Amino acid sequence: MNRRIDVSLTVNGEKVSRSVDTRTHLIDFLRSELGLTGAHTACEHGVCGACTVRVDGDAVRGCLVMAASLDGAVVETIEGLSDTGEIRDLQAAFVARNASQCGYCTPGMLVSAADILKHAPNASRDDIREHISGNYCRCTGYQAIVDAIDDVLKARRESEAA
Amino acid sequence: MNEIVTPRSLGLSREDLPNSYIGRAVPRPNARKLVEGRATYTDDVSLPRLVHAAFLRSPHAHARIVSIDTSAALDVPGVVRVFTGAELAKVCDPWVAVLAHLKGMKSAPQYPLPLERATWQGEAVVAVVADTRAAAEDGVAALAVLFDPLPAQVDMETALRPDAVIIHPELGDNLVFTRTAETGDVAAAFASAHKIVEATFHTGRHTGVTLEPRSIIADYNRADGTLTVHHSTQAPHMMQNVFATQLRMPEGDVRVICKDVGGSYGIKVHVYPDEMAVACMSRIMGRPVKFIADRFEAFGSDIHARDHRITGRLAVDAEGRFLAFDIDDLTGIGPYSVYPRTSAVEGNQVVNLCGGPYAFGAYRCTTTVVLQNKSPTCQYRAVGHPIATAVTEGLVDLAAEALGLDPVAIRRKNLIRDDAYPCTSPAGMRFEGLSHHASLDKLLDMVPLERIRADQAEQRRKGVYRGLGFASFIELTNPSPFMYGIGGAKISAQDGCTVRMDPDGSVVALSGVTEQGQGTEAILAQIVAHGVGVPVAKVKVVTGDTQTTPYGGGTWACRGAGIGGEAALQSAIALKEQILQVAGAMLQAQPSSLDIIMGEVVDRATGQSRMPLSELGRIVYYRGDTLPKDLARELVQTRHYITKEYPFAFTNGIQASWLEVDIETGIVKLLEHWCVEDCGRVINPMLVDEQVRGGIVQGIGGALYEHCIYNKDGQLLTTTLADYLVPMAAEMPDMHVGHVETPTQESLLGAKGAGEAGTAGAPAAIMNAINDALGPLSAKVFAQPFTPERILKALGTIA
């Protein structure tokens, strides 16, 4: 059961080469092998979204993707998104709205929210609720999260219109 | 010591202080690390020589452990050791979870891993330690454990029958605890009643589903004999005491650290045998051992809660005045009472809280707490509150219907008057000051009642069934030693705060209460900034380390703001007085003529700046030679606080839920939700609002979705988040939160708790709204969760 495969990929802009156990999920690879602990493990069934990261530009569940399948892939985690500044306004809105209580779901929630900013700039509040329904939050009741994402969508639309 | 200082005695007015932070929506200082993925949860910690634990868990609800063959497991690559119950018992004493003040309570000794029998499906039986979690799981898969399945006592309704399986034969029966509270002449009240309404309610067994699972790293250092535990817990000092006591160590040799905690809600305030096993294994191996529960393990081994069947009767007179409540509660708690809070407290709270918001004469309530072969239950957010509120408010709506009264009118008629305090409830609860009528007024300002009733009537004509439901509630917060201490549990009801000024004028506050995301560190920073007189950004708060913070209770029963906050305020005021003593000596002025505002020592009369705190700090720490020789110069103060007058600070509130029931599918769609709550002094309205909203959603979860379902053999069927439904964003309504402030007079701060309010009232409001919607169809539901199946059964659509 311990077959290993060599993979080379780009994680948060840095080249990474490792020999991985074929059964290792991306989330465990990121956390245990690379020390990128921002994305979290919570349900391990692809249901809750706490492990959401980007692979080749798409938001994916880190607990459903095998690390061994990622040779040549480009992976971005919450640490990378923070460093590039791509979602700085979204993060600021989450802080301002207290859209993060225990913070455990937050990195995954932000990656999903970033997906809305990228692909659905005109999303309504209902659209936002729909889109983040794959990301569970047990603390906030979601309302502050929807508010924060809505704030950023509006601000980005206004700055584009200006 | 610890005298309560009043605003008058200090000559202070909180609101008039220029640098007042009380009542301001200050963002949380620790939020940025959360949004950047740079927090430190227990699983993020890695230590040299760390090994990982995995457990073989019982596949049976009840079984004798015949034999354990570890040889194949030990051959698995990466496996270091295998531990059984007998080995761990050599270093760890068992515990029995009873409280002396819960008269007659009994439970059985519990070990880190069982010695002879497994008593619920999911109980950890054998532990494997390996260099990775994956290898440890391989080891578990290679274990050969022979079980002899025994008959299981699954149904709580039959647990006391003569033919029941006695789970612990040495206890004689499965009765853990029973208590009846009785006041007034209940029989006479019912005999004289104009109407009597009655119903049987069920609350579904559910669990907390903290997104961060239970997590622990225990690290025993043989060189100095210390045990350091990184732990996702709400009560680090309590756990320090537990580890020290059970492992026979001095308390000072145990250090519990909890940095960021990914959700707790009461789930992480208990002693779990698998976590004790981790501490034992580290103690034996002399190296750090990590255990992170996976979701499957979490569903089967985290505490469950709220598995109750309650029959209730309410007697009312011809005017609709309440005469008496008569309630019978039954709850099944699994095979052990959970240490150290005990699993009898939830039922006990039902007795304490039923009828709580109302004035009435006679009361009888019995709780019966029994053992069963299911996961243990214990305290989860708003312990007992949603149960008591659902029963009370369900009966209130039935009474309104029986008398032809409006749900608001019957509440208005019976809620305890706002000028009736202090008073004692028929259940024996002492209320200092509640605001039921002011809260109802505020709610009616927020809920567009006329528009809703008009819409409801119009929709019904179209065959759309919408309903509005109300639920008044009380909430128990700021617990004193009367909650656990008098029963012999080593759970601190007091809490402390140390506040220190550093040379640059910044302030460090170390507190015994803890942060799980509710914003403890934010409000403590606000309180300390307010009390000392510095900008909030100059305050650094440290929590979650038993070696550095004052001894305290941590987070439970909504005590962070009310207890921890008051300790912080008192220590901040003491530090300010000390700073002004030093400033007086430096400036040749009477300390009483000086004040501190936004980090500057100022002349109290004129507000003119005399000296920045950074200059005072520089001189005190580096040029003490220039100060008078006998000047006390400790720029650090510690105060501890405990409530004295009342066993608990009760809070109150009222919720309303507006929803639609699809009578074809039985699906409930939430449209809008309102909550008015009175938590006394609001320190940070944004954080309180989010606590209330989050609480409402956990209440909605219990009301509509969440359910730990077992089959008749005691097999848990809901063990993944695909089987166990929790609320998601798309189904949640907009939630409007309003406040009434009745500060407790016990403390200068005046804060009570806010964390349980949403959860306490939401299920009852939803139940009453569903029953309002179904009114024209003469259907009613009383069993939570109100699933489509149960609603369709009530409608007679399905059998």
Automatic annotation (TrEMBL), chain A:
Domain 2Fe-2S ferredoxin-type positions: 5-81
A family per Pfam: Fer2
Name of the featured protein: (2Fe-2S)-binding protein
An example Gene Ontology molecular-function term: oxidoreductase activity
Annotated signal sequence range: none
This protein's UniProt keywords: 2Fe-2S, Iron, Iron-sulfur, Metal-binding, Oxidoreductase
CDD domains assigned to the protein according to its UniProt record, in alphabetical order: fer2 (cd00207)
Gene3D superfamilies documented for this protein: 3.10.20.30, [2Fe-2S]-binding domain
Originating species: Phreatobacter aquaticus
Alphabetical list of InterPro entries matching this protein: 2Fe-2S-bd, 2Fe-2S-bd_dom_sf, 2Fe-2S_ferredoxin-like_sf, 2Fe-2S_ferredoxin-type, 2Fe2S_fd_BS, Beta-grasp_dom_sf, Diverse_Oxidoreductases
TrEMBL record, chain B:
Aldehyde oxidase/xanthine dehydrogenase a/b hammerhead domain: residues covered: 36-151
UniProt-listed Gene3D superfamilies: Aldehyde oxidase/xanthine dehydrogenase, a/b hammerhead, Aldehyde oxidase/xanthine dehydrogenase, molybdopterin binding domain
Coiled coil: none
Keywords tagged on the record: Molybdenum, Oxidoreductase
Signal sequence interval, chain numbering: none
SMART domains given in the database record: Ald_Xan_dh_C
Gene Ontology MF term list: iron ion binding; oxidoreductase activity
Listed name of the protein: Xanthine dehydrogenase family protein
Species: Phreatobacter aquaticus
